[in-house]
Amino acid sequence: MEQQFVELIQEPSGEFENFHRMSLTDFNYLLSKVLPLISKQDTHLREAIPAKIRLAVTLRFLATGDSFKSLHYLFKISSQLISKIVVDVCKALNDVLKDEIKMPVNEQQWLEVENGFKNNFPHAVGVIDGKHIIIQCPDNSGSEYFNYKKTFSIVLLALVDCNYKLMYANIGSQGRISDGGVFKNSSLWQKISSETLNLPKPRSLSSADKANIPYVFLADGAFALHNNIMKPYPGTHNIGSPKRIFNTRLSRSRVVVENVFGILANRFRIFKKPIDINIETVPIIIMTCLLLHNFLRKSNNSSHIYMPPGIVDTYDENGVLLQPGTWRQNVDKNCALRNIAQIPRRSTLSATQIRDHFAEYLFRNN
After folding, report:
1. Where does it localize (predicted)?
2. Distances in whole angstroms, Cα of residue 239 to Cα of each of 236, 244, 363
3. Segment (H or E) for 125
4. Per-residue confidence band for 216, with pLDDT thresholds at 50, 70 and 90
5. Helix or strand (DSSP H, E) at 175
6. What pTM does this model have?
């Protein structure tokens, strides 16, 4: 087994990094963290599979989407044992990396997030979106996981900042539940509605503006408009009109979450097709991908490997698309991450007035 690992790290230039989405330095760092959780003792009947091989198998499974059978031929480990190793290692990674995804806890931290959005959309403190994660039909599931597109899925709800990092993730609601329904059942919504997120207090958008406007999350039409959640105006609007400018600015800011989902699908090829593993383990494995995304995004050793130049969309200072991200070339219609239906929802008067105020402000300062 030791020789097998030596062969892995001596693969042709860049192959180890390509198949594990990280540098050997970060691999060894993660190994040191999960070692106590995934190490097994030798028995008189057989030699235990080393922790480094267990981690390598798991990362290769996530990065390539290879079947357990294909990994069996590569690592000379039975498919049944690989399926157990993957779950065990993912649980360990989720434990040691759990702090990689966390929301701001005070006003100053929220304002640091807003700093990345304010030139385009002031008072925005994150972008919310959801995706269906397509799975193979679970046994005896009835219609629980059957969604509006007649596929089986669970739902991923995410909140991201302008640096392509996740601040919150909720995984596992059955596909039949709408995006907005998933949101209303989430801990994020509970904190928004109970005003316990410690968001900055409402204040004017500029020194010339008199009204105090709340800090908001940006969303699409699948979510209900709320004092702290802005979504586009429905329908089409005249070029240069306040509603058109509002929708353009919001869409320009929201593209960051589209890129996050695109990066995930591109770098963790387990998403390249409907996921065919035990439904109970799907949320565990998805969370591992999300945590690794944040870990690798900020790593000085692996960020360039995980997110090579050009992978995300490039825009000019006016928000005009210069170059689509390369992830768009490698994510096809069979990808396990799918959009969620947008359902018209009645908005409260105060939320509508807040959106109108944003629209007028952005129109005056366009």
Report:
1. Nucleus
2. 9, 6, 11
3. strand 124-135
4. very high
5. none
6. 0.90
Phi–psi pair at 355, nearest 5 degrees: -65, -45
Residue 27 CB burial class (10 angstroms; 0-12, 13-18, ≥19): buried
Q: Which among 159, 132, 96, 198 has a CA at the least distance from the CA of 336?
A: 132
Tell me the DSSP string of 212-268.
-B--EEE--TTS--BTTEE-PPSS---TTSHHHHHHHHHHHHHHHHHHHHHHHHHH-
Average pLDDT of the residues of the chain: 87
The answer to whether 121 and 249 are in contact (CB under 8 A) is yes
Nearest to 186 by CA among 164, 167, 171: 171
Residues paired with residue 154 on neighbouring β-strands, in sequence order: 133, 174
User: What are the pLDDT digits (tens) for 99-129?
Assistant: 999 999 999 999 999 999 999 999 999 999 9
In contact, 172 and 182? CB cutoff 8 Å: no
In percent, the amount of the chain with pLDDT more than 90 equals 64
> Taking the CB of residue 101, how many other CB atoms lie within 10 A of it?
19
**DSSP symbols for 297-344:** HH-TTTHHHHS-TTSS-EE-TTS-EEE--GGGGS--TT-SEE------
What single letter denotes the amino acid at residue 161? Answer: D
Note the pLDDT tens digit of each residue in 121-165: 999 999 999 888 888 764 544 444 444 445 677 889 999 999 999
From CA 200, how far away is CA 204, in angstroms rounded?
A: 12
Tokens linked to 41 = 């003792």
Pairing state between β 321-323 and 314-315: antiparallel
